[in-house]
Amino acid sequence: QQRNPCVLAFDLGASSGRAFVGEIITETPRDASITGIGTGNSSVRKLQITEVHRFSNVPVQIGGHLHWDTPMLLREIKTGIRKAFQTGYHPESCAIDTWGVDFGLLDRNGELLGIPYHYRDRQTDGVVEEVSALVGVKRLFRESGLQFMPFNTLYQLYAMKKAGSPKLDLAETLLLTPDLLSYFLTDRRVCEFTMATTTGLFDPGRGVWNDALMEQLGIPSAIFPDPVPPGTVIGELTAEVCAELGVPPIRMIAVASHDTESAAAAVPADSPAFAYLVSGTWSLLGTQMAKPLLTPAVLERQFSNEGGVDGTYHLLKNIMGLWILQECKRKWEQLGEAYSFAELVQLAEQAEPLCTLIDPDDLRFMNPADMPEEIRTYCRETGQPVPDSPGAFARCILESLALRYSQVLEQAEELTGSRFTGLHMVGGGIQNELLCRLTAGAIGRPVWAGPVEASAIGNLLVQLRTGGWIKDSQEGLALVKTSFPLRIYEPEFEEHRAAWAAAYKRFEQLGRSMK
Ligand code: ADP
Ligand code: LRH
């Protein structure tokens, strides 16, 4: 029997990592009538994805700093490769996408210098203000295109410099997380374009590294490899890795290695001007653009321009996201009260609606020691009822996120002059049906939810293009549309609209970081 070509994607998020094999299958009309997909007599091509591995991604505090457990990530990726072959697949290639901004430094022998920092490490506290004063906010934005988030690579490197870290002096190469993990497997050093655009050191207007800014901040420009576009072949697994895993030397591809951009590349939109929300640990809300938008209004609203596939740019905003709920869940677990996400959603369903609201993007929620306590303090300070049960906390978080989505969606419309008829939601967060429903209510428009595993799918699509099995992004999106049905959430009735409008007014008054 002829085997379908297949490829292997690793999608590493801040909460978990997962490995999916993707293969293009052809359903005959007979199969199609069984599954209910497809009409007429023509056969249907679909992308079939199979999860072969999943693992938790838990960071580690070492002394005063928070780090990624990088050796664990590499070990789990190796396990994923082995499991793909053990399951009977023979992937033609594999690729890794991860969160943005973080990196490892290699010394002149090609060895890792230190343990990569986690973007929530506190070394960058106060650094945004310092760099802004040094460079000027207008230039900083014009030459990076990014929202001023304390964890952008630029600020991390500046913080290391300021702390007198010897690592920068010893570094020969800086590799962003997906490139670093690919390097461990192939011994090849690349810098993938979509990741480069998350650093703050890549000038999106000129499309090059910003050597002048690096020099001004004392960051060595020689450590940054030239960016390569998504779809570039990095190289093959090294002989050592193949021997260790007992697998043949498959190719590794640089995809849209930034998870947000891999997800955006898999949004099954019907028109080129669409709004999307990638919902996971973070919520990234934005829209696709042909080129970066570097206007004073974008600086004022604090949106980012991040590079995507096919040279596109994405105007988007980082919203604190389900991190807040994850951290409450973790705290309750420590206190001996364990709830699954599904249970928390169920409890939130029963809680009183639109009771307490928070500004999810208040920086106090970035990494507090005790998230529920931080929310309690916020409620006391803003004179609101303090949530008194996990359901009330979850409801407060989800409704506040939905209101923030509505606000940011309107800002995106204002900045781009577009009108979005609804919002595409993708990512693990769409398993939270209450969140999807609340979002539809808050924005007063439909939410089109799916696919859940958008980042892994976007990763697979770029690999399938590199392998020549699909020809362009249109063909890729057509596959997504036939393979992963959308779930539609319509906004609620008129009486709810008034309640949402009143809540939005209260939400806006919460102020602080409401730009
Ligand atoms: P990341 O890629 O950042 O690690 P994911 O895309 O995997 O994040 O999404 C993780 C989030 O998905 C969790 O924070 C949780 O809120 C949500 N989630 C996962 N499973 C469920 C579930 N069964 N029900 C509701 N929400 C869920
Ligand atoms: C989401 C994400 C986001 C970045 C953040 C660090 O996973 O990649 O786009 O800003 O992580």
UniProtKB/TrEMBL annotation:
Residues 68-264 form the Carbohydrate kinase FGGY N-terminal domain. Keywords: ATP-binding, Kinase, Nucleotide-binding, Rhamnose metabolism, Transferase. CDD domains: ASKHA_NBD_FGGY_RhaB-like (cd07771). Gene3D superfamilies: 3.30.420.40. GO terms for biological process: rhamnose catabolic process. The keyword Transferase applies. Pfam families: FGGY_C, FGGY_N. One of its GO terms (molecular function) is rhamnulokinase activity. Residues 275-465 form the Carbohydrate kinase FGGY C-terminal domain. The keyword Translocase does not apply. InterPro entries: ATPase_NBD, FGGY_C, FGGY_Carb_Kinase, FGGY_N, Rhamnulokinase. It comes from the Bacteria. Belongs to the FGGY kinase family. PANTHER family: SUGAR KINASE. This is Rhamnulokinase.
